């Protein structure tokens, strides 16, 4: 079929482009974009209303421009316009509403406050913003409570080291820019809103989580049950996360389209007994849609769940009308709907992986499944499941490598075993959430969920321990990622598409990738020095001399290397286990004879000897490319680079 047959798929790139453009525009641009939106809309209406019809190309161009400007408008409107650093100047306390139940951490409890008033020397003033808090209060906080905090929060710091995970940026996408550690100084002043309808879903989730805690015995099974059935992943143990991640089954632990699909399939089983034109059938399908959205609401409206719920709702509507709408149109429409409601979702990794996985399944699974025609129903079932897993993994692995730098070797084996188990657990677990409060029945169902999850965990741990279970330290550039997707697109459309256009498309992207890679290697310095500091006592100095990677460590904790320093080593293609470099201590100075460089840890300074670098860069300062002097000052907690 032609690309023109999928209208929503044509609209999607223009809205996405507008939202991405909005991220580069200043705060307040929504007024200008709203004016542009009005102008373009009037032009479009005038063109359509003319007696002499305008050309199809002109009207379609205006329509696409309308989508582009709409993306700019909604992206600008949703940009950060909340509490600023200046708002806290002179402030001594603030009033805020608790937004959720406490999440237990090793040494404290985490919660989220919505600030609505700040007090300074002039009195109280209204404002808005969010503060992430960690407290050690004797009593827990509940959503809807109003609290008075006698201290002001701090802005969430930016990453100290280059290529380190940007926790500040991650929270900023959720409009959270401040955090606070509270041991005391918090007073509950109002409880009247704790039973409001706004927090009904939070209370339901809390009740169901307590039900799981009471009826499911094994600690690991409780964690998986909360994640699998309710989408509450905050309590997951690091080892469990690692096991599921390294076996390629992490999607099992995040309430996603898979879970919605399982529930949808279970709910549709009774329909086999009713005719297609039955009134009961239509009423039952409507009830299924309502239950799907209730589950989505209960699990927090994650991007993958909303996508799946929207798609199943539209597919169900098609069943009611005896029509089968294009899955591509449904997929694109659900994405458009989500981005209009919440433009920032486009930057969510879960959103990206979810839509890529479904696109891969829809586009590549039919191609893969034709490789082999099994001789019996059992083999056919597992082959269909394998084809789905292969298709999803092929399309998502470039993005997974881009973000997480690893690939699970045994993903196919793990998914062939764990996904059917997850189906069985959901088939028992979802009824357990509704019926678990009934004596005896709740105990039996809780026991089944407990041991089924235990069995699933043991299989996952076993697969994780198999030799060469993962390939890690993988890297891919943005152009390389795009090239992989283009090649998959060509493969999926080779039989029915225009082969000449597909070949040209592939050659263009292959040439772009090659030129970009060549340009990057030509401009890659052969000699570089990196210095990573944390305080006056912890530092790492890395040196790249051609193909040799050297390192000197001054008390920097080894358990911090993986998330603080290793991301930069990976990006710059340095070894994560470099050769040790000699540093000679002379009083409070470290001298590196081979480099003729002196490092002053207490003063945060580097003194250059006979070999001065061509450029220096302190990643916490705006001095990229600065010409070095005989001595360079450093930030206390930052990464520093010198290019020779």
Automatic annotation (TrEMBL):
Highest rank taxon of the organism: Bacteria
Biased composition (Polar residues): 626-636
Biased composition (Basic and acidic residues): 611-625
Listed Pfam families: Competence (PF03772), DUF4131 (PF13567)
Domain DUF4131 intervals: 32-184
Subcellular location: Cell membrane
Keywords: Cell membrane, Membrane, Transmembrane, Transmembrane helix
InterPro entries from the UniProt entry: ComEC_N, Competence_DNA_uptake, DUF4131
Protein name in UniProt: ComEC/Rec2 family competence protein
Source organism: Algoriphagus aquatilis
